[in-house]
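Researcher: Structure prediction, please.
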Amino acid sequence: MSEYFHMHPDNPQARRIKQAVDILNQGGVIVYPTDSSYAIGCHLDDKAAVDRIRRIRGVDDKHPFTLVCKDLSEISQYAIVDNINYRLIKSLTPGPYTFVLEATREIPRRLKHPKRKTLGIRVPDNTIVQSLLEEFTQPIISSTLMLPNDEFPMTDPYQIQLQLENQVDLIMDGGYSGHEPTTVVDLMQNPPEILRKGKGDVDWLMKH
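Model: Predicted structure follows.
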């Protein structure tokens, strides 16, 4: 049976945030709100927890995960970012974008794209997850909360609880979320290539 926390969207309760971090550190899988849709995540180094997420989502070991970071300085620890891409990411974060970049050696091989050694990285504009990342002091390896055979991510915390209360360790209820996932931008290409159009605007690409 999972924990269920009603979170204040603007002033997340510090005690709940600390409890969520404890759950992550103990190998737990959590569901949390972002600035696009709900996400499901765990500790970066916890293979068993990552495998649980794959089973819940119904995806294989080639499915890409995203590293959800607090800010740009954290991104540069886990991905190789040149000056041009750094400026671009800075202009679009925090926000509903996932950037595909070359992963550093800090990232376990099993989480990188098998051929390209890349990883999706993002900085969400959401107070609850920002408070969580601040307390956790490291990124959360995550995936959009979309169940097998569903076309869209889950948006209703109550429905999430009904369907997943026996499969995850914590659900952080930040209210209804949007159903659009992030816009995925491949920064390994020049010019950048949009791999998935989601919530993030792409008009900036015309000026790039």
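Model: The radius of gyration is 16 Å.
Researcher: Thanks, that helps.
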